[in-house]
Predict the 3D structure of the following.
Amino acid sequence: MTIAVWIVQGLLGLIFVITGSFKFFQTKEKVIAGGGTWAEDFKPGIIKLIAGAELISGIAVIVPRLLGHGHYLTFISAACIAIIMAGAIYTHIRRREFKHAIINSVFLLMALFVAYAGWQNLPKISNF
């Protein structure tokens, strides 16, 4: 199970660092031209905010576990990715872009898997 979590966690982090970087460092027009037609519905500042959240969450899903510290941050970041993907799924369904909604659903399931698996393996804190 641990190996599966690491694999999914690595893929999730890589995917979100790449896509978040693409959106963050490109103009709105380039995001749309690159296949992100959803960006037509948003102002450039909101696109940058979404991209920044994806980029930071993608980094935070991997780095704390690699360093051996901050395990909580890893799984909180996976939960943040799940929230971002829920919004993406809603946006794509509203725009009738069902292919993109299915792809984002896979990312949502990956993020939920990492968040749940990590939460189950964290040291328990007793209340006395």
Remarks:
- The mean pLDDT is 90.
- The chain is about 80% helix and 0% strand.
